[in-house]
Inverse folding.
């Protein structure tokens, strides 16, 4: 498991660096208005992914339980149905400007089909291949975007869309070739029964994801409505920088989830979760502390004068970002043990807080109000999950105290990283 954690952390850190460079390129060439528009396009693609996850979110869990060919067929058919649902939703909620809707939809389909393939790959414990595909996607985006803007001087949003087309298309083909080895046992029998199993589990898991995604980005809608798209661009940069802290937490939680999903030992699941949660907390705390100490002039020099005030956004988000770094491990525990409904309840509570406080604080305090709202929401989510975890796992408060063994575990990981072991 250590090897997989190290590989995943390494790739996600590299992904995080690449994403940071992408933000810098976008902020330099497209300005705060352009960054705001890009933020809404990515949000729309994410919403399509959430709709698709109503079925596909349980793929990792079911790869060891249901014939993978059946999973593949069901997931691809559902993606086509998701397309219709997304287009219907777009008639009522204008997520992106009309001129970008067609491109956003095609990109969302490619993104979702790739997610289907990579989830089956991850469910089969091929974590290194999964990580490679994610890294390939990021490398293709930044290289394409750099060529289009720097060498070809195409300074417009369409250049970003072109970069996504190139990256998503190649990554989809790569993931399709990689997943093919798991689809050799062709079996159409019991397809409907498998669909019912997946949909029951997936609906609970993805509904939580849907609520959480809305919770992540509901502030975007409030900011654009009350303050404007330029302010949204500034907030997007602050959010992206802050959320880079999650690289470690998400990497560890992903390995935890794929591991627990294949276990039937609740006690071992509890011990794995607590041990990795403490590791995630300590590392995330160090990262968010460093980010909070970056002087404002340095941020303005990197991203441009349009993005002054980003440091205050990071500070207002820091508490919530740290809380959610722990929440990822609780979520992995619940989903890995077949109890995703607790993630749904937590996300619902968080969304309610964001809806109420965001509507009040953002008009009053601006971007600071958005940051405070986000932190309170994330903190409440994590507190709820902590309480449920304590009751479900019979853990003790003392289990969460840092011990010598925890530092030895962390030291082992750091030494392996320094030695280049993956």
């Amino acid at each position: 498991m250590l090897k997989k954690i190290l590989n995943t952390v390494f790739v996600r850190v590299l992904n995080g660096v690449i994403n940071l460079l992408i933000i810098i390129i976008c902020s330099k060439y497209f300005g705060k208005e352009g960054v705001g528009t890009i933020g809404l396009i990515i949000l729309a693609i994410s919403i399509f992914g959430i709709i698709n996850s109503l079925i596909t979110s349980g793929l990792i869990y079911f790869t060891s339980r249901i014939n993978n060919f059946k999973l593949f067929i069901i997931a691809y058919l559902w993606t086509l149905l998701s397309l219709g649902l997304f287009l219907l939703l777009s008639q009522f909620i204008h997520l992106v400007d009309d001129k970008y809707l067609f491109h956003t939809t095609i990109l969302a389909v490619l993104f979702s089909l790739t997610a289907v393939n990579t989830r089956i790959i991850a469910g089969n414990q091929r974590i290194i291949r999964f990580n490679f595909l994610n890294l390939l996607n990021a490398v293709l985006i930044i290289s394409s975007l750099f060529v289009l803007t720097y060498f070809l001087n195409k300074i417009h949003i369409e250049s970003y869309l072109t970069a996504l087309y190139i990256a998503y298309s190649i990554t989809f083909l790569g993931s399709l070739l990689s997943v093919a080895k798991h689809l050799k046992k062709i079996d159409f029998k019991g397809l409907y029964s498998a669909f019912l199993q997946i949909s029951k589990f997936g609906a609970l898991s993805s509904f939580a994801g849907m609520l959480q995604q809305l919770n992540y980005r509901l502030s975007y809608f409030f900011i654009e409505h009350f303050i404007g798209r330029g302010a949204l661009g500034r907030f997007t940069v602050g959010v992206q920088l802050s959320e880079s802290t999650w690289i470690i937490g998400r990497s560890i939680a992903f390995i935890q989830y794929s591991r627990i999903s294949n276990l039937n030992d609740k006690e071992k699941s509890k011990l794995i979760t607590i041990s990795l949660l403490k590791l995630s907390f300590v590392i995330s705390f160090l990262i968010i502390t460093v980010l909070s100490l970056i002087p404002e002039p340095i941020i303005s020099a990197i991203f441009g004068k349009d993005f002054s005030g980003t440091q205050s956004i990071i500070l207002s988000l820091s508490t919530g970002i740290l809380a959610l770094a722990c929440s990822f491990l609780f979520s992995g525990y619940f989903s890995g043990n077949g109890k995703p409904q607790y993630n749904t309840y937590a996300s619902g509570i968080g969304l309610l807080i964001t809806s109420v406080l965001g509507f009040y604080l953002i008009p009053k305090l601006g971007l600071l109000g958005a940051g405070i709202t986000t932190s309170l929401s994330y903190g409440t989510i994590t507190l709820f999950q902590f309480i449920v975890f304590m009751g479900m796992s019979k853990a003790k408060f003392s289990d969460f105290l840092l011990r010598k063994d925890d530092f030895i575990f962390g030291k082992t990981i750091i030494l392996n990283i320094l030695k280049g072991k993956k």
About this structure: The chain is about 85% helix and 0% strand. The radius of gyration is 21 Å. Confidence is low (pLDDT under 50) at residues 417-422. The chain has one domain: 2-418.
